[in-house]
Amino acid sequence: MKLRNYFKKYFDAELAIILAIFYLITICLNLIKVFSTAYLKGTPMLQGENFFFQIYVLDAITVVGIMFIIAMHTKRLILKRTSWRKILLFHFFLALILGVVIQFITDVYRLQVGLLNAFDFKKSLNVFLSVIDINFLVYFAMLFIIYTYYYFSIIRASEKQQSLLETQVVTARMNMLTSQLQPHFLFNTINCIIGLIDVDKRKAQETLVDLSTFFREVTKNSNVHFFTVAKEMEILSHYLGILKVRFPENLTIVEHIDPELLEEMIPAMVLQPLIENSINHGYENSTRPLLIEIAISKEGEFINITLKNDGPPITDFQSGKSTGVGISNLKLRLINLYGNRATFTLRNKADGCGVENILKIPLR
């Protein structure tokens, strides 16, 4: 099963065909050289034409088969981002081993067909050394094809991913704006401002400024993929200011931000949908006071962003109600930005008193 999964993950049929064609061309050119030389010298092929064809067929099967395996392992090394020094040393030894294997198979074949009465190590070594430069040249030529193929594939995938990312970011922005511009959000905020005009004009003005600044920042940075933690918290403060006016007595927000992470880069506008998700869960079936904790910390080579509330736990994670449009778009953005290196977890707290959103992203 592991071998099948390895083969499925790293084998590339198109590359295998390219390598096979390249080596067959090399063999054909070599055969042309051998027979042309014999013809020009007027000397017969003492070992027979069939022998040469059989040897080259055996050689082609061996080399191409081994190069298929090397190509798969090369892809694995590229994905693991192995240092070029280790890769070069690895392939240097493989080139030697491949030459030894080919010479061994050739000698065994000669013994089988009766062209050799006994194995002669010195003669075999002499033949091996006489073609070692050609073996290295062919091996590294095929290796160049492998790396060129994979790096072009990486470039194409990167371009495709970048295009998809830009589309997803625009979509996420538009969905976020749409969700925040829904009547209930604007009406509730405007009603709060109207209610504050006669009671606290300054507070009404501050809330209106928060509303205006929040939407201005969202639209102004619509093409920005990353913010520093400090910038993210600055923009979020305007959104939180609006929420605190809407829920003056029922909502408490506590922040735990590691000061050392303020200049680290995180996906732009990543906290707003998490806050919205926490509020949706917290007030879903209750009107009691709600505590939301925002924590940003470092764990090894990752940044942990955690939002907790002390509202009612989620009873059904499969219904689709546990995440909204904002979280769905966030997951898509994480895939495009980090592949499988970033994770998002939504779960009930261990003590059963509330829900936590946990986002884990690699440090840039």
Write the layout of secondary structure elements.
Elements: H1 2-10, H2 13-41, H3 49-79, H4 84-113, H5 121-130, H6 132-180, H7 183-199, H8 201-220, E1 226-228, H9 229-246, E2 251-257, E3 265-267, H10 271-282, E4 290-299, E5 302-309, H11 325-338, E6 343-348, E7 355-362
Parallel strand pairs: 2-4
Antiparallel strand pairs: 1-3, 4-5, 5-7, 6-7
Helix pairs in contact: 2-3, 2-6, 3-4, 3-6, 4-6, 6-11, 7-8, 7-9, 8-9
Keywords: Kinase, Membrane, Transferase, Transmembrane, Transmembrane helix
Transmembrane segments: 12-32, 52-72, 84-105, 125-152
GO molecular function: kinase activity
Structural key phrases:
single chain; 364 residues; alpha+beta; Heat Shock Protein 90; 2 domains; two-stranded antiparallel sheet; 11 helices; 7 strands
What does this structure look like?
- This protein has 364 residues and is an alpha+beta fold.
- The chain has 2 domains: 2-159, no CATH class; 181-362, Heat Shock Protein 90.
- Helices cover 66% and strands 12% of the residues.
- Strands 2-4-5-7-6 form a 5-stranded mixed beta sheet. It has a two-stranded antiparallel sheet with strand order 1-3.
- 19% of the residues are buried.
- Keywords: Kinase, Membrane, Transferase, Transmembrane, Transmembrane helix.
- This is Histidine kinase.
- The chain crosses the membrane at residues 12-32, 52-72, 84-105, 125-152.
- Residues 172-251 form the Signal transduction histidine kinase internal region domain.
**Shape category:** elongated
- Given helix and strand content, the structural type is alpha+beta
CATH architecture descriptor of the largest domain:
2-Layer Sandwich
Write down the CATH topology of the largest domain.
Answer: Heat Shock Protein 90
* Count of helical regions: 11
Residue share in β-strands: 5-15%
Biggest sheet, in brief? 5 strands, mixed
Number of strands: 7
CATH superfamily of the largest domain: Histidine kinase-like ATPase, C-terminal domain
Q: Compute the gyration radius: what is it?
A: 33 Å
- Which spans of ≥5 residues are poorly predicted at pLDDT below 50? none
- What's the number of structural domains? 2
Alpha-carbon distance between the termini? 35 Å
Strand neighbour order, sheet with most strands: 2-4-5-7-6
The level 1 CATH classification of the largest domain is: Alpha Beta
- What order do the helices and strands follow? HHHHHHHHEHEEHEEHEE
Fraction of residues in helix: 55-70%
